[in-house]
Amino acid sequence: MWWEPVVAVAIFPGVLTAILLAFFYQWFDRRVAARMQNRYGPIYVGKWGLLQPIADFVKLMTKQDITPKGAVRPVFTAVPIIYFALVLYLFFYIPITGITGLVSFQGDLLLFFAVTTFEVLFTTLGGWSSRSPYSQVGGIRGALQLLGYETPLELALLLPAVLTGSFRIADIVEYQVARGVPLAGPLLIAFILAFIGLQAEMERLPFDVPEAETEIVAGWLTEYSGKKLALLRLAADIKFVVSAGLIVALFLGGPYPLVCELPPMSPWLETIVLTAIFLAKLTAVIFVFTWLKVVMARFRIDQVLHVCWTFLVPLAVLQLVLVYGYLTLAPFLGW
Amino acid sequence: MSAPTTMEVPVGPQHPALKEPIRLTLYIDGEYVVRVKPRIGYVHRAIEKAFEQRNYIQNLYLAERVCGICSHSHIFCYSQCLDRLLEKPAPPRGEYIRLIVAELERIHSHLLWLGVAFHEIGFDTLWYYVWRDREVVMDLLELVSGNRVNYAMSTVGGARRDIDNLKADKIRKGMNVLEERTKYYLDVCIKDIVSGTSVRRRTEGVAILKTRDAIELGAVGPTARASNVKRDIRADDKYSAYAECWERSGVDVIVWETCDLWARVAVRVLEVIQSIQLIRDALDHMPSGPYRHPLPPVLRIPENEAISMVEAPRGELIHHIRSDGTDRPYRHKVRSPTLGNILPVCKMLEGVYIADVPIAFAGIDPCISCTDRVLHLIDVGRREPRDLGVFNIFELRHWARKRCGGSR
């Protein structure tokens, strides 16, 4: 039908799904972190505080939108919109209801990396354009941090591509489904590195150096308020879901159960089952992200670079060597 | 010494990293701090002048409000000073009660600092944990005094309320809980592979204050002890009931050799355990008898002069009073411990990363509002700078209005 792609993009598994998942997992993250920290977390709005993120979003939307006097207005205004659009765009690549996401083509994994790097560029731009010292320091720290985590993270995320021989996320999912093995097993080191690297990518503890509250207020977000801040916060939440979704796709077999074949069923039912499996895996991954946030103190910017280059990069290279060793030896040994 | 590469970054008097107003002008070379220029005096409350305008009994309440966290240390120091002015020591039971409350307060203050320190390095989980456990000691303070902050437990000639056996048992139980929890934090900071490593990564080798500098610049309290200076009024002066409790409970001044931020964390955590030992000892050996001398309706103190020193949670606290035979002090001088630590912290900050400035500054447990004492105004608006001298708060307000040209 003509309306099917429209519904897919606008509602499921498109924009609306992304926003709802973002709200839900913001609540999940806050709530689980709060319970780990012996607090309650959000409890007042909706059942178990489920609607708190939406309430926060609505509140921010109604707040006065201030642009600082010295800010570069066009850039300052454009950054939240572009940033939000980029993050939302990445959500379309995450396979939720089947092998492919909404968009899929050979090399989409590379495009994914390019866009995530763009995002950091826009954080720096946003910090620079607001002309507040805190924002500028935050923006510069974001760019500096990128130099540290990008290499190990992208090595880790490219390893599934090396092993499967394709730069297409759908192919990587298919590889895992065909063999019934999640790549998290053979690529354990890369799997762990992906968690650490994505935590840095999302500027969450212990890598929240660009937003370090006790040092530089809110980093590059300091001068943003009202609708712009609401949009940026929502973008951060979607990015959270996208990052976890990427791990699910690359390392955990996407929305497929892997342990058994799906019995034949109607397409509608299959979509529902696959989505449920995807959400279960996503929740597990997000739980680990939350746990990582809770158990550590913030790094200093020099320590981020130090840890990334002396610890994470060698590990990523080690995994690369292992994968190449396997690929070279496998034909001879008849694996 | 102003190298052309340095950049001047003002921190404060209003800054998100500071809980109280102080201005630190940082001279920055790249990511490092080269030199720091402090400027205090933003929260001058003319409290010393206020002391002179009230009688000794009213001043009890005022002394307690010099500081919001170490309130008992101030009233302890003040009432001890009055005891010395009157040359009539408090009864032993009163001294023991003062000691117990002082040590409970030290536990609460150190745990408060520990939480803030964890927050500054971005470790909010431990912050919540520590402050939850701090509630145990807050509840005990409320139990013995009825208040969580200003306990009003000390007065001229003894303590104001008794600690009976029932309360003593509850304190003992609370101490067991706190000892276990404090040891847990020590374990987390030292042994735990994920959390401990990340705490030590942010604190080890940061903001070093060498022993020599600590002595020269007159560091006090845990800051000095973390720089391996064996300086503790409780051991050096043996005032009040510490004369008996200190030796008997087998505690010693806690010092740490590394002189860095980690040492300041370790010293404070170990001091919590030390305080627990002191409280247990004091409760076990509490002498019977009265806990306070009766007071005359109007307290007049003959011409005399006395000084009193107390080891507050942040270090050496001094009250100096001069009486002139009336019911009011002729002069009352308070020197709170943070003043002694301002110069050391400026030395400490030299060479640290900008990112470490908040935690390094928090490392001395600053209490700016109780530090600011005297505002010596110099009118620079005229051609000849004129020294306007020291004001009390009313004169200051009047002068400020005159300067602003306001009508009120």
Structural key phrases:
heterodimer; A: 335 residues; mainly alpha; 12 helices; globular; B: 408 residues; alpha+beta; Cytochrome-c3 Hydrogenase, chain B; three-stranded antiparallel β-sheet; 15 helices; 48% helix
Fold and architecture overview:
The complex is a heterodimer of chains A (335) and B (408). Chain A has one domain. Helix content of chain A is 69%, strand content 0%. Chain A has helices at 3-10, 15-36, 52-62, 73-91, 108-130, 133-164, 169-179, 188-201, 213-216, 226-251, 267-294, 301-333. Chain A starts with a helix and ends with a helix. In chain B, the strands form four sheets. Chain B has a three-stranded antiparallel β-sheet with strand order 1-2-3. In chain B, strands 6-7-8 form a three-stranded antiparallel β-sheet. Chain B folds into two domains: 48-370, Cytochrome-c3 Hydrogenase, chain B, CATH 1.10.645; 378-408, no CATH class. The longest helix of chain B is centred in the first third of the chain and has 29 residues, at 92-120. Classes of the chains: A mainly alpha (335), B alpha+beta (408).
